[in-house]
Amino acid sequence: MSAKSVAFAFCVAALVACVAPESPDAEQPARQQPAASDQASRQAGDAVPPLSAELVTHMDSSEREKSISHHVEVLMYHDTGDPGFRATVRQFAEMWEDLVPDNGEAESGQGELLRAIGRLAGEDRRNGCCNWDDFYESRVAFLRDHLPHEAVFASPQQARILRDLHLVAENGKDGLDAEEMRTVFGRLIMDVVAYCRAQSATMRRDQLPRAKVQNLQTPPGRKPWWRFW
């Protein structure tokens, strides 16, 4: 074969190789797979991270503050005009949050005092004492037995507490002047806070000391506002 023939054959072979389609069975380059550490990081990023203890505590604190603030505004209905009344009912609401359960009796004596005056004031405020029954009578008796204690209150305060509790009982049975009772409950709320603050430790209900002046003579009952005869 001549040199020209060889050169021509070589050119034809090269041209065919350039234009021939790639075989579908030809091996494709492998797609690079992400490293295991990258996959783990991506999965971790897609998942919702757990709440941190600090965030949970903050959320609990926020709900607690919301509950306390609402309670304070409710109790301001009983404002006595005392400059420290708002601060006192704030303390009441804080202690209520810590010591008074959502249902049933409180485990502590202080919690049960808070619950007693809270239930009495709430019944008057919401319902005008239309649901008054033996339960509310028992709450008055509980406060009378324990609240006006001589270790916390001087004699004039003890006598005033007993008079106020007498009015609460009369109001429950017959209905007294609403404006007067609004501040009567306000004074008793402040008294319960003063009692709780005077205690150095939380006591069980059965550890509450009984007041010696619980049977102090109370004023005679007054006629309800709606009786004119």
Task: Give a concise summary.
By secondary structure, the protein is mostly helical. The chain has 8 helices and no strands.
Rg calc: 40 Å
Count of extended strands: 0
For the record, give the distance between the C-alpha atoms at the N and C termini, rounded to a whole number.
148 Å
Global structural class: mainly alpha
**What overall form do the CA principal axes indicate?**
globular
Oligomer: single chain
Number of helices: 8
What does this structure look like?
Helix 4 crosses helix 5. The chain has eight helices and no strands. By secondary structure, the chain is an all-alpha fold. The C terminus is likely disordered. 61% of the residues lie in helices and 0% in strands.
